[in-house]
Inositol monophosphatase family protein
Amino acid sequence: MDYQLHHRILVWMEQAAETLKYSLERELQVEEKKSPSDLVTEMDKATEQFFINKIREYYPTHQIIGEEGQGDIVDDTKGTVWVIDPIDGTLNFVKAKNHFGIMIGIFEDGLPVAGYIYDVMNSDLYYGIVGVDVYLNNHPLEPLKISQLNESLVLGNVESFSNNVYNMKALLNVSLGARSYGSAAIEIIGLIRGEAALYFSAGLRPWDFAAGYAICESMGYKVTTIDGSRPDILTRSPILFAHPNVHQEALELLSHK
Ligand code: IPD
Ligand code: CA
Ligand code: CA
Ligand code: CA
């Protein structure tokens, strides 16, 4: 990991988070994308552009994948690739003014190097550096002990649980129960804090899973698609993030319909 790059990301994320907090004091410009629950605001676009301008200034050879499409068209993962979700949980940002995050994943030749998730309204910055450790506000994070699925909570999307996508109800039945926050960022934070044993989503895009993939990898958690393989940062996939003690059991439950 390039520590100058790491320190720059910390500074940029603090700046972006402050700007997002202040933006909630005025009226947002909200547009619908594909449905009434799929929103984008001027702050999603401005935050993405803020990071892209910084990256292009300091690291012009790096490739950038951003949800709002202002980055590069990336079709190979060679070299350094940044994957950015400027606001994860835009619906929460607009409706609840809470429970949303900024997510950045850094990859080298397709493999995770570092991941950053900023829980903006709690001013909590989580990051993981692969091969080093996971931190909350620069202090190493001590996750709670997870032993078995039947002693744990699970995290996932409410609609996917109720539609039993990938047999998700089996996770509900085996565990103590499910929790859902409407933001992959906040759900992944729940997992890395040890509040739940896993987070599963039936269809995550690269910017939804990149940061969490790198952070979980840094703490020895497993992150795979439904067939047990490593996620591809160019493809939308079902992704299971899980404590190693429950990963295999969860994968089997999800795969049996
Ligand atoms: C969405 C949120 C949501 C998840 C969706 C994502 P966005 O991200 O993380 O919780 O269920 O799959 O697309 O659009 O708010 O960045
Ligand atoms: Ca979105
Ligand atoms: Ca987003
Ligand atoms: Ca997202």
